Amino acid sequence: MLLAVLGASGQTGVHLVQQALDKKNRVLALVRDTAKMEGLVQDSNLEVVEVDIMSEDSITAQLEGRAVDVVISCLGRTDRKSRDPSTFYSDSMREVVGAMRRAKVRRLVCVSSWWTVSWPQDGRPWWYRWFVQGGWTATHADLTEMEEFITMSCTDINYTIVKPPVFLTDGPLDARELKAAQLEQVPFTGRPTLSRANLARFLLFILGTSKWNSRKVAIL
Length: 220
Ligand SMILES: NC(=O)c1ccc[n+]([C@@H]2O[C@H](COP(=O)([O-])OP(=O)(O)OC[C@H]3O[C@@H](n4cnc5c(N)ncnc54)[C@H](OP(=O)(O)O)[C@@H]3O)[C@@H](O)[C@H]2O)c1
Hints:
Elements: E1 2-6, H1 11-22, E2 26-31, H2 34-38, E3 46-50, H3 56-63, E4 70-73, H4 88-103, E5 107-111, H5 126-153, E6 158-163, E7 167-169, E8 180-181, E9 193-195, H6 196-205, E10 215-219
Parallel strand pairs: 1-2, 1-4, 2-3, 4-5, 5-6, 6-10, 7-9
Antiparallel strand pairs: 8-10
Helix pairs in contact: 1-6, 3-4, 4-5
NADP nicotinamide-adenine-dinucleotide phosphate binds at residues 7, 9-13, 31-33, 36, 53, 74-76, 78, 111, 113, 164, 166-168, 196.
């Protein structure tokens, strides 16, 4: 397969690119700084190109004519500690989907997060509501808008929105079966964490199953 990866130079993105290459896929890394990628992953099946993720034209120019099978977004707001309002995820996703349509790429996988959409009894623990949630309200509102755009306006795209727990770690890749649920979270005890390496493993795993086509999936 040919995977176009957005956010390839990020912490999850690097794991994804490396694991995809290890499985003999080809990867087109769409990054804002190609020099940054040079020091991270090198492989003859990896092509690194520069894009402006806020420009449909820029993304289209790299996707068109390449027979890309899937676009996977590991984009993350790099100022995410900020409480300032954000439109990073929703704005960039509109440009990405516009480019996918023009380049006739019909499969999209993107990373969001647990608990972006709130409803009574959604299982958020008290400590999250009291101590953590406030800092991420702006980011989660933006992710909610991104998810709504994809689910409501992208019925022509076979999407999967992957929602990892709010604490990603640099822990190792392992082979345990991840729990998955079509909810805002997966039942858990303690502090819900997932390594970025295992998140990347799941992003690749779902390409081989139709189970999560046109769905959101929370994982742990
Ligand atoms: N961190 C967590 O605990 C956590 C929890 C739940 C969900 N998530 C979600 O998981 C995903 C991956 O997280 P992560 O920690 O692996 O992310 P990360 O390391 O911060 O990587 C973010 C990626 O997005 C790219 N990016 C940011 N702004 C960009 C821009 N304006 N133009 C082009 N590229 C841009 C970065 O490029 P550069 O390398 O050039 O900066 C980088 O490749 C994100 O969607 C995040 O919201 C994270």
